[in-house]
Specification:
131 residues; mainly beta; five-stranded antiparallel beta sheet; binds dTDP-4-keto-6-deoxyglucose
């Protein structure tokens, strides 16, 4: 699966923790876009699509949520619950985000500007592309 767990280095001292994110260093692409979601209701499922080209790194800077990843052959669930834990998702992976805590802030670094034509929103079309 084109998915990789990233443990960001913590620069901690007596004042607390600091995480640094650098393109083409600990983030494996050039960062063209950053977005985040918050105030997500507990029962909500977001995502439910794949991307043709986009690479992303997702992490919860606050709270927690679960990401279901599916490459058309196997699925895995990852709980993002620490600000230093990130997940790299490459193209061709169906994703679904759910079980958000009330305080969850899901931050995403993306390799491309927003482009609706990069989305595969139909699961059967996604599966056909996986063959
Ligand atoms: C993804 C998962 C993890 C924009 O105008 N610009 C943007 O950069 C984004 C990401 C969204 N939007 C608009 C498009 C929709 O009208 O914001 C609205 C909500 O977007 P969407 O329904 O696509 O959100 P999610 O949570 O289902 O998916 C998002 C990303 O779109 C997607 O690339 O991988 O987060």
């Amino acid at each position: 699966m084109k998915v990789k767990y990233i443990d960001f280095q913590k620069h901690g001292d007596y004042r607390g923790q600091l995480i640094a994110l650098e393109e083409n260093r600990n983030i494996p692409f050039t960062i063209r876009r950053v977005y985040f979601m918050y105030d997500t209701k507990e029962y909500v499922h977001r995502g439910l699509h794949a991307h043709k080209k986009l690479k992303q790194v997702l992490f919860c800077v606050s709270g927690a949520c679960t990401i279901k990843l599916d490459n058309g052959h196997e699925t895995m669930d990852i709980r993002l619950e620490k600000p230093f834990q990130g997940i790299f998702i490459g193209p061709g992976i169906w994703r679904e985000m759910y079980d958000f805590t009330e305080d969850a802030v899901l931050m995403v670094l993306a390799s491309e500007f927003y482009d609706e034509s990069d989305y595969i929103r139909d699961y059967d079309t996604f599966l056909k592309n996986c063959l």
